[in-house]
């Protein structure tokens, strides 16, 4: 993965590992979302969970800790390696690099006849509709497909920081009805939704910048300008959320949509 330049003091930029910053700083911000979805779907022993875009595997680890057998796919090699390090050995769990086509081998590299009963796409991205259509044959009839994204803009403080990317590159957040549109396009049946509070909290501004850059939402802005300019604008956008002790706190709400395989 291409490293990201992040400032540690005003005079110096150092090269950081974006995949590890995601794993160590940013990914944990969505733990309330993962927990809410797993609680609602009663994920536990006997569950067979596939994570699309599984990142460095925290959501998979949480499902495995409930007794589920898990598999994950992600296109980022560095994140896949971190996810493999996290998952316990001997549980039949597997993480592979790629997309839905690479998930077809079944859990733990088992027979292709193995079918998933929960498929999660917690980190939606362009092309997700095509990926869901490709993964549907790997899920059993009635399986839950979970998509997630940002909640109402007025309840997501981080939106003001994401507007840095919009200003520099024309990037725009997903439209409000994107999840429903993806489900309809994939031929799935909607089966409920929910909202979860997922505040983004950081020890300091440095950690906030590193975490936010690790999401990939600012990659195009860095290519269009330069890392130091993007970082400067992120720091300015963060200023209203810096508390007296130097920590950064941004309340957010995420939304998830559950669909069922016919």
Keywords:
two-stranded antiparallel ribbon; 11 strands; globular; seven-stranded mixed β-sheet; 262 residues; disordered N terminus; alpha/beta
Oligomer: single chain
| Average predicted local confidence, pLDDT | 86
Largest sheet: 7 strands, mixed
Q: Uncertain spans, ≥5 residues at pLDDT below 50?
A: 1-15
Order of helices and strands: EEHHEHEHEEHEHHEEHHHEE
**What is the rounded distance between the termini?**
37 Å
Helix content estimate: 25-40%
The portion of residues forming beta strands comes to 25-35%
Shape: globular
- Radius of gyration, taken over Cα atoms and rounded to an integer in Å: 18 Å
| Biggest β-sheet: strands ordered side by side in the sheet | 5-4-3-6-7-11-8
Q: What structural class do helix, strand and pairing data support?
A: alpha/beta
Tally of separate helices: 10
Q: What is the tally of beta strands?
A: 11
Write the layout of secondary structure elements.
Elements: E1 4-9, E2 12-16, H1 18-26, H2 31-40, E3 48-52, H3 58-65, E4 69-74, H4 77-86, E5 94-97, E6 116-121, H5 128-135, E7 139-150, H6 159-169, H7 178-185, E8 189-197, E9 200-202, H8 205-214, H9 219-224, H10 227-238, E10 248-250, E11 253-260
Parallel strand pairs: 3-4, 3-6, 4-5, 6-7
Antiparallel strand pairs: 1-2, 7-11, 8-11, 9-10
Helix pairs in contact: 1-8, 2-3, 6-10, 8-10
